[in-house]
Amino acid sequence: MASVTTYCRICEPLCGLEATVEDGRVVRIRPDREHPLSKGFACPKGIAMTEVQNDPDRVLHPLRRRPDGEFERVGWDEALGDIAARLNALRKEHGGSSIGWYFGNPATFSYSHPLWLNGFMAALKSPHLYSAGSQDVNNRFAASALLYGAPVLVPIPDLKRTDLLLMLGANPLVSHGSLITAPRIREDLSAIVVRGGRVVVADPRRTETARAYEHLPVRPDGDAALLLSLLNVIFEEGLEDRAACARQASGVQELRALAEGFAPEDVEARSGVPAPAARELARDLARAERAVVYGRTGTCLGRHGTLTAFLIDAVTQVTGNLDRPGGAVFGAAPFRLDEVLRLSGLASYARTRSRVGGYPDILGTFPAGVMAEEITTPGPGRLRALLVSGGNPVLSVPGSAALDKALDELDLLVTIDLYVTDTGRKADYVLPATTFLEREDFPLPFLQNHLTPYVTWTEPVVAPRGEARQEWEIIEALARRMGLGVGAFGPQRLAHRLGVRPSPRSLVDGLLRTGPAGDWYGLRRILTGRGGLSLKRLRKEPHGIVLADHHRTGTLRRRILHKDKRVHLAPPEIAAEVRRLAAEPEPPDGFPLRLIGLREMRSHNSWMHNAPALMRGGRVHAARINPQDAAAHGIKDGEPCRITSPHGSVELAALVTDEMTEGTVAVPHGWGHRGGWRTANAAGGANVNLLASPDPADLERLAGMAWLNGVPIRIEPA
Length: 718
Description:
CATH topology of the largest domain: Rossmann fold
Strand order of the largest sheet: 5-4-19-18-17-6-7
Distance between the termini: 53 Å
Shape: globular
Number of domains: 3
Radius of gyration: 25 Å
CATH class of the largest domain: Alpha Beta
Oligomer: single chain
Largest sheet: 7 strands, mixed
Structural class: alpha/beta
Helix content: 25-40%
């Protein structure tokens, strides 16, 4: 029996784990007490990975669909050979643009998976790359592109030094933080209060985080109106930090003009925040020594997600808190990640537009909400084959019934996953992927999000079960059979041209060693007498390396990509969005309530409902509703109810609770399974995204974000 150190790759804290291995099998997972950041903390999902790892429902061999709809086991060579032949036939007849790829949230937690799939799609010259980002985070990248000229330049709240944190649409006591990697975020938030500061949580629901701090109830999708009202007060009362505005920004006066029509009294009904409370909050943000605004998924999925993300940074900037201690800071990686992403072409915004809807690409991906029509709409570039890795779009995209039906029109559907998911049940092939315990890894996408600068590496804990393979290995093997050279980064493309196919491990080692903190292949020690980073060094530090106490500030001007090196506070796209917000029509009659989502501690999107440890205690998929709304609509606690939107209807249990503000119903996503996972299927529930609009025209214009929050609904007993 051996103990192996690794780290969790389910959500963004990346907590340290200790796995107990016996006879090549993981028998127990516990938190890593020696991890310098998580310090013995891990949530129930990380501990339950033992059950996912050893799940009897896991796909361990390639599966092929038979004519009767059931799956049969086949060999890797047979599966990859047939897939490659069918893809090449489509390329020959319709071009590489007939082939698409969707990757889900878990893909982002592998350093190698996104690199290889981006390289594969680049080799195909296909625009059909889709991700879960359009149901999660892409609006944040769009906002950064407009503000800073760099979509991957995303500020993080400096929780360890702030005096006032305004948090919108985030519940980090359950989610443990997003777009910020802070494993002990509960302690970081509590420390703000202990040192005399405040944490204000703006949310339509009295979330677990709101209960612990100050709750500011807002209306669903009211965040943009609230932020504009704060700017209105700050400018009207002369509270802006004029020195910071003059030093950092352009468009200040234009932003002031945009906020003029959003006095707190004028938008009270839309934001849900009483005017006196909004005015006082604006003054507190402006007068605090160190303040910051932070928003996450709840602010991303309404009608104005990009505008909201933009305004979060705008409020922080005009109060003088951007790129300064205790405000919003810009994290740095131990190598030149900004430059690598930019030169590789992966850090893009609006470089191209989708065939359906004309939506801008974000980091090379288009919104998943157009996939159904990309499959069904005739013409050049029609999507005819789709590969899906680490994702379950049938349960995650808006109006998912349309996608479920459209998948039947594909010439080929392949999923790479741990399970036959709700999407995988329609696939021609299901290919077995490794769990994160079966692969080496490096936190590449999160290096700039660590609240405390940090870097780590992990080797696999155990060998892959059955015939499971890492995603990059599957992509590489498929590309070889198709005659493609895979190259997402310049060094990778150059190596392929020279006939060398480098591994992800060698690419990361090269980036580390040549970066500003690298060992420069031994040259640093010769020149300075000090060593630097390399993969060899990281392998000797199983708990990772803390690089500094805090991120440096005063770096923004150097990292902005706008030619004038200023934050752009009033680009035309944002001005147009503000006008749209002001002119937005009233919702349709007959739908008096508004739907929002929520996170659950023992769920992670749609892929962890098959772990018995996470489903104990009679867990039920339930719609949370305020007691006054329940009484008005005849809803009883624990009884089934029917929720109807203009686009669909679902039935599930009702949970009557005063944590909900009046007029709002909250339903978790990721339930209602019909895949090859028995525990998940038996859990029941409903696919809440059936209530969302399937129409690509209803996606948010600047980022193609799904409209999943603030959806008009009605509710009645089932």
